[in-house]
Amino acid sequence: MRREGSSGAQPDRPQEPLRTEFEFELPRGFVDEAGTVHRRGAMRLATARDELLPLRDIRVRENPAYLSVVLLGRVITRLGTLPSVHDGTVENMFASDLAFLQDFYRQINAEGHTRAAVACPHCEESFEVELAGSRLGES
Length: 139
Hints:
The protein is of the alpha+beta class. It has one domain. The protein has helices at 48-52, 58-62, 67-75, 87-91, 95-109; strands at 21-31, 37-44, 76-79, 115-119, 126-130. A hairpin with a 5-residue loop joins strand 1 and strand 2 (37-44). The protein is globular and about 55 Å long. The protein starts with 20 loop residues before the first strand and ends in a 9-residue tail after the last strand.
């Protein structure tokens, strides 16, 4: 038996569609072979497959830090006027842009925020912590 209101949706307001792609602007920008700078792009939400498949990649097994490069290459849907974005594109980005994209990935895949409410186990005081400090692909 279903209880009224158990779905969490409010009956008088239509439910918003799930947003699966998010636009960004790189701090520095990716410079292609012709010298064109690409700064504006979009990233889609990651799927479980996006996070699992790179673990089979030999480059990731040999160097776990490469996980973020492969993962970002899968979820960035566009960047400037580039015809496609892949892990080779990501590995040639400036470090500051890579760090930006890692934080952006965490933010959109954590339902729009990277902060969590916690309580101190000793004094039980509540406060928020920043989750964005961990490496991409880790919990």
